[in-house]
Amino acid sequence: MAGINTIIFDLGGVLIDWDPLYVFGEYFDSEEKRDYFFMYICTADWNEQQDEGRSIVEATEDLIKKHPDWEKPIRDYYGRWTEMLHGPIQESVDIFYQLKESGKYKLYALTNWQAGLFDIALVRYDFLHWFDGRVVSGEEKIRKPFPEFYQLLLNRYQVNPEEALFIDDNLRNVKAAEELGIRSLHFRSPQQLKEELEHIGVGPLIQGAGT
Predict the structure, then answer these.
(1) CATH class entry, domain 6-17+86-199
(2) How far apart, in whole angstroms, are the C-alpha atoms of residue 57 and residue 99?
(3) What is the DSSP letter of 5?
(4) Coil, helix or strand for 43?
C-alpha cells in the first residue's frame, strides 16, 4: 500500500450526516406506514434518479400523480430535505483534514448527489472545497455504482486505480470500485476508518485533531 497517492471519498454517510429518518423517523403514526413509504413510495431507487440528474420538481409531481394519498410526505421529502442534512461527521472530517495537511495525497470526492441540492452543501460546509477535485452524479448524469462514473473521475484527474483508495459507506459502491481495480474501504464509523487507514499504512491519524 506504499504506492497509494490518491484517496477518493464518498460524502453522504462518510463526511456528512444525511438521513431521511431525521424527517421521517417520527413522521408517521406507525413504523409499518413509514417502512411502506420508503419501500414503495419514496424509494432509494427513486431518489437515485434525482441523483442522476432528474429534476426534483418533475420527480415530486410525477410521484404525487401516482400516489395522491401520499402527497404531503412526498412533498416533504425534498421540501424538508435540508432537515435531513445534519452536518459534518466531525471525526471523519478531522481525518480528512489530516490527510489534506499531510500533503501526501490527492483527495477527490465521488458522490451521488442531485446537483441543486449539492449546491446547498457547498454553501454550508467549507471542507467540501478542500478537495483537489470532485465528481457529482447530478452534474454528470450518471452515478455509482455504474463503472463509467468511477472511470470519469479516473480519467478527468489522471488517477491510476492501482494507486488509489476509495472510501464509501455503501457496500454496493465499494464492490463496484474494486471491480475497477481500486482498493476500497467500506466505511462504518470514523474510528473504524482511522484503524483501517493506519493498518494499510495511511497514517498515523489522531482522532479529533485538526478542525
Answers:
(1) alpha beta
(2) 38
(3) -
(4) coil
SS3 1: coil
Residue 43 Cα distances to 35, 59, 83, 132, angstroms: 10, 12, 18, 33
Tell me the per-residue pLDDT of 15-46, one tens digit each, with 9 for 90 and over: 999 999 999 999 999 999 999 999 999 999 99
Mean local confidence (pLDDT), 121-140: 98
Entry pTM: 0.94
| Crossing angle of the two packed helices 71-79 and 56-66, in degrees rounded to 10 | 170
Which three cell numbers mark 78? 425534498
Tell me the DSSP string of 87-152.
EE-HHHHHHHHHHHHHT--EEEEEE---HHHHHHHHHH-GGGGSSSEEEEHHHHT--TTSHHHHHH
**Chain length of the chain:** 211
Domain locations in the chain?
6-17+86-199, 19-84
Q: What is the pLDDT of residues 164-200, one digit of tens each?
A: 999 999 999 999 999 999 999 999 999 999 999 999 9
Q: What is the maximum alpha-carbon separation in the chain?
A: 56
Query: Rounded distance, CA 204 to CA 176, Å?
Result: 28
Copy the grid coordinates of residue 71: 402527497
